[in-house]
Known about the structure:
Elements lengths: L7 H7 L13 E6 L6 E9 L2 E10 L2 H13 L5 H17 L21 H22 L7
Antiparallel strand pairs: 1-2, 2-3
Amino acid sequence: MTDDLYSSDVLRLAADIPRLGALEAPHARVRKVSRLCGSELELDLRCKTGRVVDLALRVKACALGQASAAVLGRNLLGATVDEVRSGRDGLKAMLKEGAAPPRGRFAELSALEGARNYPARHQSVMLAFEAALEAVEATIRPQTLTV
């Protein structure tokens, strides 16, 4: 692996993941696993009036997955579903299409730009944002009971 993949920025982020742990009574709980590398991420989330008001992460991933989770953990509070979707879509475009890194709320994802040349790592990098989008969307869907 080259230095651009595990840059000092990636390692700094991976070493400082905020909001680790679990929430009591989250509005949504999502678990994602990379079938390719075995990385795991669980996310608990609370939303109010369409915005994220609390979150907690449990991460078992490589430095790239940890760095992505750190960016999410630092910047998800206050985000709307559209902002989370935009962050996820921007990260995916950066990795798979060579697009510029996301701007705005999740601009720190630029540290993961070196991962674009390593498709086997993409799924781990995407886990946190896939989980966050699924969780936020779950909080805004009408709940239906099945009998």
